[in-house]
Design brief:
It is a single chain. The chain has about 270 residues and is of the alpha/beta class. It has one domain: NAD(P)-binding Rossmann-like Domain (Rossmann fold). Helices cover about 30% and strands about 15% of the residues. It is built from eight helices and nine strands. The strands form two sheets. The chain has a seven-stranded parallel beta sheet, sandwiched between helices. The radius of gyration is 18 Å and the shape is globular.
């Protein structure tokens, strides 16, 4: 019989962005599945547990990133700015930083990465459309643009150097959906963990883009092009529907945040004139 997902070892793994919300949640989950886990962030992190190494590192520091990837088998790259910000704040970690990660992977012979992309790569598709990863990107801001860059960069490193990547266009990964929009975009922590395991253990992934969403009744994204990963989400936002619809009984169809999949990301940020 094949090994169960819980028994699979992910080898020596690097987790970047370990001080962030998802990084903190995934750190323990991944540690239980690895022979060695190196965690990194620009911010302070909890002390190392058995089988761990903690490295504080800015992604734009090329030498530090190159040292960070030494001796690991694979990378889960969550690091970077995760909200809409002025471009000058986005570019260091999300563009220069992701380049540094891939260059370090090339030089150290790391052959598989999981890149935390975002649904904001396609945020300007409407909520009444169902799209898949083969359709053109339509970023909804600087953050989405930076994630589209990361996807394209990872494609280049696969085509040129054979480094496999699964780009996960994460929807909304929280303990529960926060609003009606998230009834479509919600990704449970358990489904995210299972997706990471599938991305790291599938025999061949090439360059794959997959939307990170649970088995929700409301669907904007078709993951058929990523079925070769062998991942099937097990959770659903449906148990939260009644409460979220009661909290937002009326929606303003003139509000771009209601029309577009990006939600509130389509509104101007405080940095725009």
């Amino acid at each position: 019989m094949p090994a169960s997902p819980s028994s699979l070892s992910l080898g020596r793994l690097l987790l970047t962005g370990a001080a962030g919300g998802l990084g903190k949640e995934l750190r323990g989950r991944l540690r239980a599945r690895t022979s060695f886990l190196r965690v990194s962030d620009v911010a302070a992190m909890a002390p190392a547990q058995e089988g761990e190494e903690v490295v504080q590192c800015a992604l734009e520091d090329r030498a530090a990133v190159h040292a960070l990837l030494q001796g690991v088998d694979a990378v889960v790259h969550l690091g970077g700015v995760s909200t809409e910000q002025p471009f000058d704040q986005i570019v260091q970690a999300n563009i220069i930083g992701v380049y540094n990660v891939y260059e370090a992977a090339r030089k150290h012979g790391v052959k598989r990465l999981v890149f935390a992309s975002s649904n904001h790569v396609t945020g300007y598709y409407r909520q009444d459309e169902v799209i898949d990863a083969t359709m053109p990107v339509r970023p909804d801001g600087h953050y989405g643009i930076s994630k589209a860059f990361g996807e394209n960069l990872s494609r280049f490193y696969f085509d040129r150097y054979g480094i496999e990547t699964v780009c996960i266009r994460i929807g909304s990964s929280f303990p529960e959906p926060a609003d009606r929009r998230m009834l479509a975009t919600w990704l449970s922590y358990g489904d995210l963990e299972r997706l990471l395991v599938a991305s790291l253990t599938a025999p061949v992934v090439g360059h794959t883009i997959v939307y990170g969403m649970s088995d929700n009744e409301t669907v904007w994204w078709d993951n058929t092009p990523a079925r070769h990963l062998g991942w099937r989400p097990q959770d659903s936002s449906e148990p939260f529907r009644a409460a979220k619809e009661a909290a937002q009984p009326r929606l303003d169809l003139n509000d771009p945040a209601v029309l577009y999949q990006a939600g509130g990301f389509v509104h101007k940020g405080p940095f725009e004139n």
